[in-house]
Design a protein that fits this description.
By secondary structure, the protein is mainly alpha-helical. It has 5 helices and 3 strands; from the N terminus they run H-H-H-E-E-E-H-H. The protein has one domain. The protein has a 3-stranded antiparallel sheet. A hairpin with a 2-residue loop joins strand 1 (66-67) and strand 2 (70-72). Helix 4 runs antiparallel to helix 5 (122-148). Mean pLDDT is 76; it is low at 1-20.
């Protein structure tokens, strides 16, 4: 494709905005595949004036806040009041890349719920059920996204 030199929306060569042309296409695909703890897509408009800033912010936060099963979406200037409670945090975001980890965690968590119930640890069982409920929303949402297209490497 010819490199676009036009600086307006709706470029006749590439059909995209200047902001879209300045960041990798893989990032836009990645953004379209993110879900929150409720299994809902995380909003993103690739043509928004702030889209390139999102790309920069993502790459900075990804280095700072990579998790074994997703990413922290909390702004860098805010501290986390609940470390290790990511699956109950509204700032948590994940992608199909982490689907197998979520499946394993759901299976392990299910066993932990049974153990907590059997030993009368009601508060622990209640907390584990909240995590399990979120996993049961995240997993099908990621499965649906995984069936929709290519991987989610945002770089």
């Amino acid at each position: 494709m010819t490199r676009c030199s036009r600086r307006r929306s709706g470029c006749p060569v590439c059909g995209s905005s200047p902001a879209r042309r300045s960041r990798p296409a893989a990032f836009d695909r990645y953004q379209a595949q993110r879900v929150n703890i409720s299994g809902e897509p995380v909003g993103y408009d690739p043509d928004a004036p702030t889209a390139s800033a999102e790309w920069v912010k993502h790459n900075l936060n990804r280095v700072r806040d990579s998790l074994p099963n997703g990413y922290c979406g909390r702004p860098a200037q805010q501290d986390c009041p609940h470390p290790n409670a990511c699956l109950t945090c509204p700032d948590f975001q994940t992608t199909p890349q982490f689907l197998q980890i979520h499946r394993r965690q759901a299976a392990t968590n299910s066993n932990l719920i049974a153990q907590a119930d059997a030993s009368g640890q009601l508060r622990l069982a209640q907390n584990l059920r909240r995590v399990q409920a979120n996993l049961e929303q995240i997993i099908p949402a990621l499965e649906a996204l995984q069936d929709d297209g290519p991987g989610d490497d945002p770089r």
